[in-house]
């Protein structure tokens, strides 16, 4: 009888459960639509095409107050991506260093790193963002302090101005031949990678160890520097100058960006450090001893034996830390950084009053970013995964 | 947190069976309390005092409505709302009336389906700058960094003003008034802009108010008033005429001190009609004859409310200006009670 067939029975019950769940969501959805209509809240995304009428202080693409709300959202999205990428890179560097150093035999170094980890991962990231921003605002001088014959503050190296509004750094100015220098530099990067691959293959095939550090640096910089001088210094610097109320010229790194970036990086870096430590400890001690018995030096043991194996343990949780950084970047509003939450979920939402639409769209944007990061990191994960043949 | 409010609203909307929202008056009377949406804390307009009692200019409107409808000015449940959550809270029925420095604009009235029940404060947006900056007009602010509270109409006015005058600026968006104050005082922005009433309230809290000047330019019109949901005309009438009663009371000299005496009957037919000793205007509103008497008795007339919360004798120190009675050259003008 069919009913006695476990396979058939389980499919039937799963199908019935699926229908029930679908019916529940359909009922919730229709009820929601009916109630929203009764409350006079119609769902409409027309506002995205209307002009936004507000300004944003950091725009990576062209934007003015006459642009649409959609464009404002995209400006916000790019700002979110910018701070997330910066924070992911910085957090990874901090995390790897802190994780490795926490296992150091040096008592002071390992305790310092333990303190860092425990301090930063046990205080909410919002608090860190606000603390760093407040310290920057209170401690760094206002631009007016740079004014006058005997100013209270001066620019570092005559190029960098640290103010409580942000950091002003010189901007590279490219003459047409400057692109040639950049092209040569890009070619150097490619050849450096090629050289390192060659060196690795040589090591694996013939057991011959070629020096990598000095040749890489030489390949990287010598041609570009030679070209720079040969072409008559085609890359100049635009140095920020104090004029009117603010510094002008150069590149401005807003205080809010720096505070958010730094806070996210050191906070998540503490988690990544623990990850890295767990990964390293997961490689059995015998591996280190075997490598040492073969005559490898400690740094090579770390690079060639431990880390490649540890990465299999480190990478999967690293993905979720990157996702956390991206999602935590929505705390930007605390310091007035205009990310996606600040534009679409903040000003646009307020000005149009379309809260439900804006929040739904916001969720969609974050979902898309997170899924994209997951997909990318999964590709990397499958590259470092244990190859089973 | 704000997201969860909205999602919560969504969930509640999804779960609850449809309730028609057109009988706010009877709902409020049945419930016995008035749900009033107010600011999260702006001294003078809506802020809890040391004992946790809400007080302020916007709060007084809610108390007057509660007195008129429920015969008890204390029967108000205050819900503090941010600039983001306020409209959803009103539309979903979480509050019956939103009395929270909300500027009357076309889209809020028409597109978002709300009704502004009147204007209780005529405001305009201004700038405050440190005196040492040597700026005497907003036209000299080209290139300045300006702190602005996000989620308000001020952001849009600021953008329009600089665009119109062909000037550059850098906005520093800030979530709350107190953070803006901190940033401004630290010099992280050259100027701070918000409604002139808010500037006065903010400056009053500075250590050295004299070191800061409010620039003479008022760059926008900000008519502030309480609002209710569109489509519930009876409720809108109650709120509208309660405010009108407060304004008319000042014009006719009805104060909390003499109201009991005037209630006995006077030679002025209009005062008699307002206080219910002649005709029965209250019945037409679905209330009783004493509705306006109670509303005025609760906190005094419009002038008394103004003087007590934000007037010149308070730390906020606002002059009546546009908010004087029309007989004194202001814009406060209540339609006739007849």
TrEMBL record, chain B:
It holds the Pfam family SBP_bac_3. Residues 33-262 form the Solute-binding protein family 3/N-terminal domain. Residues 1-22 form the signal peptide. Keywords: Signal, Transport. GO terms for biological process: amino acid transport. The keyword Transport applies. CDD domains: PBP2_BztA. Belongs to the bacterial solute-binding protein 3 family. This is Amino acid ABC transporter substrate-binding protein. It comes from Roseivivax halodurans JCM 10272.
């Amino acid at each position: 009888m069919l009913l006695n067939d476990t396979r058939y029975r389980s499919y039937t019950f799963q199908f019935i459960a699926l229908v029930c769940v679908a019916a529940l969501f359909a009922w919730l959805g229709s009820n929601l639509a009916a109630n929203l209509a009764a409350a006079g809240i119609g769902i409409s995304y027309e506002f995205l095409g209307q002009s936004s009428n507000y300004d944003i202080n950091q725009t990576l693409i062209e934007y003015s107050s006459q642009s649409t709300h959609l464009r404002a959202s995209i400006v916000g999205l790019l700002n979110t991506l910018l701070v997330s990428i910066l924070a992911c890179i910085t957090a990874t560097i901090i995390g790897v260093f802190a994780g490795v150093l926490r296992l150091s035999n040096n008592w002071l170094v390992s305790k310092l790193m333990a303190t860092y980890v425990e301090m930063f991962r046990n205080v909410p990231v919002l608090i860190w963002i606000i603390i760093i921003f407040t310290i920057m605002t209170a401690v760094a001088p206002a631009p007016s302090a740079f004014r006058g014959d005997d100013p209270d503050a001066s620019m570092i190296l005559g190029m960098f101005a640290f103010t409580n509004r942000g950091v002003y750094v010189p901007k590279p100015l490219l003459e047409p031949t400057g692109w040639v220098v950049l092209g040569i530099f890009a070619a150097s990067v490619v050849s450096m990678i090629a050289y390192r691959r060659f060196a690795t293959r040589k090591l694996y095939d013939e057991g011959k160890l070629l020096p990598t550090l000095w040749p890489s640096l030489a390949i990287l910089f010598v041609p570009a520097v030679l070209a720079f001088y040969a072409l008559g210094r085609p890359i100049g610097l635009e140095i920020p100058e104090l004029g009117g109320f603010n510094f002008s010229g150069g590149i401005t790194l807003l205080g809010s960006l720096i505070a958010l970036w730094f806070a996210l990086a050191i906070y998540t870096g503490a988690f990544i450090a623990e990850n890295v430590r767990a990964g390293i400890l997961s490689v059995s001690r015998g591996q280190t001893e075997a490598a040492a018995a073969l005559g490898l030096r400690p740094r090579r043991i770390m690079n060639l034996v431990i880390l490649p194996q540890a990465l299999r343990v480190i990478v999967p949780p690293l993905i979720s830390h990157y996702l956390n950084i991206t999602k935590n970047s929505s705390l930007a509003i605390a310091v007035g950084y205009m990310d996606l939450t600040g534009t679409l979920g903040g000003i646009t939402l307020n000005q149009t009053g379309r809260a439900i639409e804006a929040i739904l769209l916001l969720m969609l944007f974050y979902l898309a970013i997170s899924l994209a990061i997951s997909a990318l990191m999964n590709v990397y994960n499958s590259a470092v995964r244990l190859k089973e043949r | 947190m704000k997201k969860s409010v909205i999602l919560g609203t969504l969930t509640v909307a999804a779960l609850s069976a449809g309730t028609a929202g057109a009988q706010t008056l009877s709902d409020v009377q049945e419930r016995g309390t008035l749900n009033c949406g107010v600011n999260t804390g702006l001294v003078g307009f809506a802020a809890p005092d040391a004992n946790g009692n809400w007080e302020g200019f916007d709060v007084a409107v809610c108390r007057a409505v509660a007195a008129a409808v429920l015969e008890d000015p204390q029967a108000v449940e205050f819900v503090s709302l941010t600039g983001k959550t306020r409209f959803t809270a009103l539309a979903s029925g979480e509050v019956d009336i939103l009395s929270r420095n909300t500027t009357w604009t076309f889209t809020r009235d028409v597109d978002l389906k709300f009704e502004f029940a009147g204007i209780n404060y005529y405001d305009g947006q201004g700038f405050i700058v440190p005196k040492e900056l040597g700026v005497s007009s907003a036209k000299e602010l080209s290139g300045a960094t300006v702190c602005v509270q996000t989620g308000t109409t001020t952001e849009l006015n600021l953008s329009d003003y600089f665009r119109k005058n062909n000037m550059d600026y850098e906005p520093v968006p800030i979530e709350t008034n107190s953070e803006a104050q901190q940033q401004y005082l630290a010099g992280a922005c050259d100027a701070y802009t918000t409604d002139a009433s808010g500037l006065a309230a903010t400056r009053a809290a500075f250590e050295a108010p004299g070191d800061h000047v409010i620039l003479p330019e008022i760059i926008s019109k900000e008519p502030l008033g309480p609002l209710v949901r569109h489509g519930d005309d009876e409720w809108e009438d109650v709120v509208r005429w309660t405010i009108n009663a407060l304004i008319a009371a000042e014009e006719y000299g009805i104060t909390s001190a003499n109201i009991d005496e005037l209630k006995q009957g006077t030679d002025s037919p209009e005062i008699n009609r307002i206080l219910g000793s002649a005709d029965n205007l209250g019945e037409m509103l679905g209330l009783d004859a004493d509705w306006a008497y109670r509303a005025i008795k609760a906190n005094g007339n419009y002038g008394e409310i103004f003087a007590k919360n934000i007037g010149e004798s308070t730390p906020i120190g606002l002059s009546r200006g546009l908010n004087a009675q029309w007989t004194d050259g202001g814009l406060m003008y209540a339609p006739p009670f007849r």
